Amino acid sequence: QLVAESLGKKNKGILPIISKMPCDNHSLMQYYLEGNTNHFFTFFFVKEKKQINKINNKIILDEKHYLKNKSLNEISFSQFIATQNVFKSKKIPFRSFVISKRTESTLGELFSFFMIETIMLGKLLNINPYDQPAVELIKKSTLKILK
């Protein structure tokens, strides 16, 4: 919301798209890896210290032995690393954030970082990151219709 609203002006800006991995691997990853190349990616991962929800070893087939004694967080983190490795090999620009503590303080740090980043990008793009003139047009038009 912050990036699109603050930077989407003057035929410029960045369109943020959220993909939840690994759910979106089949629907979007092919495009990300071999589609249009004008994208930049940001990966987030919350690395839980407590490894709960381990795979039940009794129901794992022998050919899937690599899943034994793994938690869902460990499996997801492996996919996170694998995705970064493939992006590196294809020279697709990305950055990663591994969050070790799921706290209000950590969330505040991330919000502060992205707000400052958005302001700086606005300045670099010669865009005022603080207004939303196009959205105001819709608000004014809605008010006019309602009156």
Model description:
The chain has helices at 2-7, 25-34, 72-89, 104-124, 133-146; strands spanning 41-46, 94-99. It is mainly alpha-helical and 147 residues long.
- Strand order within the widest beta sheet: 1-2
The proportion of residues forming helix, as a percent range, comes to 40-55%
Radius of gyration: 21 Å
For the record, give the distance between the C-alpha atoms at the N and C termini, rounded to a whole number. 29 Å
Mean pLDDT: 89
Q: Describe the global form.
A: elongated
How many individual helices?
Answer: 5
- Name the structural class: mainly alpha
Number of strands: 2
| Largest sheet: number of strands, sense, barrel closure | 2 strands, parallel
Low-confidence blocks of residues? none
Question: SSE order, as H and E?
Answer: HHEHEHH
Strand content: 5-15%
How would you summarize what this structure contains?
With 147 residues, the chain is mainly alpha-helical. It has helices at residues 2-7, 25-34, 72-89, 104-124, 133-146, and strands at residues 41-46, 94-99.
Map the helices and strands:
Layout: H1 2-7, H2 25-34, E1 41-46, H3 72-89, E2 94-99, H4 104-124, H5 133-146
Parallel strand pairs: 1-2
Highlighted features:
single chain; 147 residues; mainly alpha; two-stranded parallel sheet; 5 helices; 47% helix; 8% strand; elongated
